[in-house]
């Protein structure tokens, strides 16, 4: 589970972001100022930080700069000030994205998802490098798959679909969700795109082809 640190001195903002983040499956930790954010990052590893600019004790820009000195954690900055100068200054101190208050929590979740999806697997998740299900072994660092000890020649899309299904083993994934997760867009009459890729993927999984179950009228799920 990916971990998010929220640093904001407004309780209602913290509660709002926490609720949406938890719904998306993130593990959330919250602090109320920049100094606490720095201390939290010295104790724990986080996958992303959502941080307000104006906070007591230590402001968000200062906290971001300090944290970036010892840990490479992406930071989304929240601020009621959305001037070009503020944004440029934020990027100079290491901010990865800048969101102006008031903001849409759904948009914030989308920005978090984009940043995390493009972030390379970190050393702290090295123990999760290998995913093994039956005779299928997925190397998430090397983006490679072996089936009964032999390398499967998967395309990037086939690999992404397999990884998504395996990571959600036993959960029915709709075609729309697969399209959104793998291709990055919603379905507009292109369900057959997923069906065709699933067909190709199954053909490369040998005796494990039937682990990908078709749920009629909905989508697919992975079961061993």
Automatic annotation (TrEMBL):
Membrane-crossing ranges are none
Query: Where on the chain is 4-aspartylphosphate found, per UniProt?
Result: 52
CC terms in the record's Gene Ontology section: cytosol; protein-DNA complex
Q: Which domain of life is it from?
A: Bacteria
The yes or no answer to whether the keyword Phosphoprotein is present is yes
Please indicate if the UniProt record lists Repeat as a keyword.
Answer: no
Response regulatory domain location is: 3-116
| A GO term, aspect molecular function | transcription cis-regulatory region binding
* One annotated GO biological process: regulation of DNA-templated transcription
Q: Which UniProt keywords apply?
A: DNA-binding, Phosphoprotein, Transcription, Transcription regulation, Two-component regulatory system
Q: Which CDD domains match?
A: REC_OmpR, trans_reg_C
What Pfam families does this protein's entry cite?
A: Response_reg, Trans_reg_C
Q: What does this protein do?
A: May play the central regulatory role in sporulation. It may be an element of the effector pathway responsible for the activation of sporulation genes in response to nutritional stress. Spo0A may act in concert with spo0H (a sigma factor) to control the expression of some genes that are critical to the sporulation process.
Instruction: State the name under which the record lists this protein.
Output: Stage 0 sporulation protein A homolog
Q: What does the record give as the organism's lineage?
A: Bacteria, Bacillati, Bacillota, Clostridia, Eubacteriales
